[in-house]
Amino acid sequence: NAGVTQTPKFRILKIGQSMTLQCTQDMNHNYMYWYRQDPGMGLKLIYYSVGAGITDKGDVPNGYNVSRSTTEDFPLRLELAAPSQTSVYFCASSYVGNTEAFFGQGTRLTVV
Amino acid sequence: AQTVTQSQPEMSVQEAETVTLSCTYDTSESDYYLFWYKQPPSRQMILVIRQEAYKQQNATENRFSVNFQKAAKSFSLKISDSQLGDAAMYFCAYRSDAGGTSYGKLTFGQGTILTVHP
Predict the structure, then answer these.
(1) Do residues B35 and B106 lie in contact, with contact meaning Cβ atoms separated by under 8 Å?
(2) What is the pLDDT of residue A70?
(3) In a mutagenesis test of the B interface, which of A4, A27, A37 is the best target, namely the one with the most B β-carbons within 10 Å?
(4) How far is A5 from chain B (nearest CA, A)?
(5) Which of A23, A81, B11, B41 is geometrically suited to a Cys-Cys bond with A111, CB 3.0 to 4.6 A?
């Protein structure tokens, strides 16, 4: 099993550009999440999904969009990149009834 | 809303010694889980240890153990016989288990950077 796979690992964006961070998991997990980690800070929840077709906002959703068309994939879209979105982004998944969350290796995004 | 606080931005320890990382949390719920995650320079989030709130016994995983004080809302991590490979950022995290609507969402503390000196 590959677990949770995120692409790309690094990206530099110019202000106003858009991009999609890809996330896929092969563990048939119901729940998927996007977190961001700012320097010296803990992870904050951006969006989450409890199954295909169902998504909801987390604590810091502004400037982002998500979709969940399949159980495996949960892409995160940045429409108009801003310097405040410079961060490390983590995708994670977990299975209902199981307490452990599995994380991808993160995407370091810089907006200049 | 739940909050998690790690009051030690940085800690250091000598190799083979013991170190304790602190974490406090605030919640009105009675059913929840607490976790310690390790984040080495590779950025990978690695689960170190978990504690179910309904269990009075403190969790232990090899050299890692916790001191869970439910009434005080405190959840510290003790690393015994510290090794160079333990150097990392450590995060305390909270997950609600209330009413089936928490959906596994995690609330993280700010993290503690642990340095291990040879």
Answers:
(1) yes
(2) 97
(3) A37
(4) 12
(5) A81
Question: Whole-number mean pLDDT of chain B?
Answer: 95
Chain segment A34-70, per-residue pLDDT in tens: 999 998 889 999 999 999 999 999 999 999 999 999 9
Positive or negative torsion for Cα B38, B35, A94, B55? positive
Residues in Cβ contact with A94 at an 8 Å cutoff, skipping those fewer than 6 apart: A29, A30, A31, A33, A100, A101, A102, B104
Q: What pLDDT digit, counting tens, does each position of B55-90 carry?
A: 989 999 999 999 999 999 999 999 999 999 999 999
- How far, in Å, CA of B62 to CA of B88, rounded? 18
Q: Which residues, 6+ apart, have CB-to-CB distance to B78 below 8 Å?
A: B18, B19, B20, B21, B64, B65, B66, B67
**Distance of alpha carbon B3 from the chain centroid:** 14
Q: Which has the closest alpha carbon to A11: A3, A2, A21? A: A21
B62 φ/ψ sector (left φ>0, alpha ψ -120 to 50, else beta)? left
- Whether residues A103 and B33 touch (CB distance < 8 A) is answered with no
